[in-house]
Structures are given as C-alpha cells and as structure tokens.
Design a protein that fits this description.
- The chain has 105 residues and is mainly α.
- The protein is built from one helix and no strands.
- The mean pLDDT is 93.
C-alpha cells in the first residue's frame, strides 16, 4: 500500500468516526431535550396538582366553617326551643291554676 492510500484510508475512517460521533451526539442531545421536555411537563403537572389541592383544602376549611356555623345555629335553636317549652309549660301551669281557682269558686 502506498502512503497516499494509507492517508486516504485514515481520512475515510476519520470521516466515518466523525459522522458516527455526530450522529451519537445528535441522538444524545435529542434524548436530553425530550427528557427536559418531559421533566418540564411533569413540573407543570405538579404545579397544577398543587393548585387543585390548595383549592380543595380551602373548600374543606370553608365547609368545616359552615358546618360549625350550622352546629351553632342548631344549638341556639335547641336553647330557644327549651326556653319556649319551659315558659309555655309555666304559662299552662298558671293557666291551669287560674282555671282550677275559677272552677273552685
């Protein structure tokens, strides 16, 4: 083999290696970009999920407050009803006494 043939063979192999290396770098770059896009998508979804969880938490707190308000209202109603029943019983008792006194005369 002549020197120029050896040089040509080396040059051909170097070109082939350069093309292979370029294809490998492009493949790795593409893979890395896809992974970054996937990670960005995942990060966006995480942010969305956190927003929804925050809204749910706020709704739960609001619902619990409304439940507490209803419990207070029920307690007030029970108290007022007990007062009405007690006063009503007293009035009926006094009315009964008046009727008994009137009948007894």
């Amino acid at each position: 083999m002549g020197e120029s043939t050896v040089h040509a063979e080396i040059f051909t192999r170097l070109n082939s290696l350069e093309q292979s290396l370029g294809a490998h770098v492009a493949s790795c770059t593409e893979r890395r970009l896809r992974e970054e896009e996937r990670q960005q998508h995942n990060d966006e979804k995480i942010v969305e999920v956190r927003k929804v969880m925050t809204e749910i938490h706020a709704n739960i707190k609001e619902t619990n407050k409304k439940i507490d308000d209803v419990k207070l209202n029920v307690t007030e109603i029970k108290t007022k009803f007990a007062i009405i029943v007690t006063v009503g019983g007293f009035i009926l008792s006094q009315l009964g006494n008046l009727i008994a006194a009137w009948v007894g005369k």
